[in-house]
Amino acid sequence: MTNVTRTVLVALITLGLAACASKETAPVEDTSTPEPMPEPEPVVETTGYQGPTDYTSKEGLDDPRNLLSKRVIYFDFDKSNVKPEYREILSAHATYMAANGGARVTLEGHADERGTREYNLGLGERRGNSAMGLLDAQGAASNQLSVVSYGEERPVSTCSNESCWSRNRRVEIVYTRVQ
Amino acid sequence: MTVMQLCLRVTLAVTLAAALMSSAAARDDELIIQITPAGEAATPIAVVPFLWSAAGVPGETDMSKVISDDLARSGQFNPLPLRDMVERPSRLPDVNYGLWRRLEVNYLVIGEITGSPLDGYEIRMHLLDVVSGEALTSLVFGARAGGLRYTAHHIADTIYEELLEVPGFFRTRIAYITAEGEGDNTSYSLMVADADGFNPQPIVRSREPLLSPAWSPDASRLAYVSFEQGNSSIFIQELATGQREQVARFRGINGAPSFSPDGRRLALTLSRTGNPEIYVMDLSSRRLRQITNHWAIDTEPVWAPDGQTLVFTSDRGGKPQLYQVSVSGDGKPQRVTRQGDYNARASMSPSGDRVALVSGTAEDYRIALMDRETYLMQIVSDGPLDESPSFAPNGRMVLYASRRGQQGVLSAVPVYGAAAAGHTAHQLIYSDGHIREPAWSPLRQ
Question: For chain A, what is the radius of gyration of the CA atoms?
Fold first, then answer.
């Protein structure tokens, strides 16, 4: 467990579980003070989620601080290798998939508008396959993964310069089943 | 002159043509055709307004204008403007050849429309040689009400063939894809229009991407790629009935359909083995034959007219280039493009002597023509994002898609003889949505 995780755990116990903590320790220390009324259970279910570096709980998918919430990785022009800065994201998802055998992911491969459409379908698929290879190597099972290429047909940005092109050369990690 | 110099010269000519056309504006949901003035290489001709001697008032089709615009758009004719026609004969005895000689036209077209909307029309036309003072062709065409536009295209084809000795393409059609809206609200249509951009009709509409329309050789069917089931799949649709069949829905990519010259086979791209390879499907048995087997992206196959050879795009050498391979499956693919970083998406000329392709660098994609014997390439468009070249069925023009800002444009450029040397005429089709992937139909059979 990393230091960050430990700090977060301590914080959670201090803040969220203050009532329980005092309930457990109070009787030993001082019996003369009246026991405080037990507070209602927290409405938000946090069971098992250990914070931004917990890659095994589905809560992480919605926590903006957690790498699991990052589900798009970007590529260089006409390239399909996963750049180093995105490997951590893929390994977080691989960890999640290994821990949640029911999870299913479609890797949607995309290209920018440059080059021909059918070639870009091939390029989008190659990017999807490259992401799939890393997920697979880090513990996701092949039956959890599929690739679909949209080539240049579904741009997220439509200007004709690098600011849009760089956002369109991407693989989107789409969970079709979470658990 | 070196090839580079030739490319530069041709490119400049096209850039000038594009500048001339930049005044065109787009109207909502309508294709607009703009014709640039023809250059010196084009043959001067006058198409005199046809005399309306039929019952009722003249309909919305101005036949002589349709004929004149067809001829101008081909890049091979330079029609005389209406305002210069000081006489407007419609019958042979009324023709004053001396006047037309002074107006420096080589040929004159006159005609008369008789009949009625109920019984049908008769169109009497004469093609006259102004220099010799002789009629080259005198014909009578029948037309039903609503059929005058098609008959005008027929007359233009007749004139074109009489004077150039090759069939015209004015009665052919074009298929293309449009995308309207943004993001998740995009809707895609596969459209079919007349060769001059009129009568655009959607034949498929979808919320998911459509791409790569390809005509059957008899122009009765279109193959295309649809993402309607989440992944790509290939359909073949009968144009007249709208009925369609799904012919490929394998794991991975199902793309780049291309009918064989006999219409019995379909070349296509499948990545069911993990990466894109070229296959040929026998359409009656649906049996597949794998043609390429390489870790590279192999795609965009097109047939040579012999039905024995495929030209396709592959990045097996590191960057996309064109290769050719025998469909019998024996023999290694041979690289056919020899110049440039990026060469893809071939369109075969009807005689098989040339391919049109997309040629470019990372920032600039243009349409090029490559001679299949000498491998020499000539750039014929001005970029920077030109794609999807498609030969006219007579091989004299190439239609392609390009962009003007966020607007899609279809352009046609003459690629044969004197008209090509000057790049004097150019057709543009604009639309508000994205318009792309034009495919020029074969001659109707």
Answer: 22
